[in-house]
Design goal:
The protein is of the alpha+beta class. Helices cover 41% and strands 23% of the residues. A 5-stranded mixed sheet has the order 4-3-2-1-5.
């Protein structure tokens, strides 16, 4: 039986509340579970101690039995110091979309044209001054 440590959603509409549960991976998200290991309330501030509560002894037991934590639960366990930190690289997250890249290119082209236009009269002025100074 493949086990997962995951979140089961509760609470009303737009007021989420999650139970951290050990469940068979084939069961639905909010369906049957084997044991409730803790709670997670995302409505509380991040520095609140009530935001995430876990029975760490039972979590360690289920991890020892081979249960795999989901990504969100593993982040909570990393924050609690139970699991080592994983290197996560979402390389595409920070890159802008096609339209934003096109706008950036247009803006850069306009800025370059403006810089050239500003530099051209400045270069001509010293040449005129030098010609006037020679006469």
């Amino acid at each position: 039986m493949s086990m997962k440590i995951r979140l089961a959603r509760g609470g009303s509409k737009k007021r989420p509340f999650y139970a951290i549960v050990a469940a068979d991976s084939r069961m639905p998200r909010d369906g049957r579970f084997i044991e409730k290991l803790g709670t997670y309330n995302p409505m509380l501030p991040k520095d609140s101690e009530e935001r995430v509560k876990m029975d760490m002894e039972r979590v360690k037991y289920w991890l020892g039995e081979g249960a795999q934590p989901t990504d969100r639960v593993s982040r909570m366990l990393e924050a609690a110091g139970e699991l080592p930190k994983k290197d996560r690289a979402n390389l595409k997250k920070g890159t802008p979309g096609k339209a934003a890249q096109a706008r950036a290119e247009e803006k850069a082209a306009k800025a370059a044209a403006a810089a050239e236009a500003a530099a051209a009269p400045a270069e001509e002025a010293p040449a005129e001054e030098a010609a006037a100074a020679e006469e």
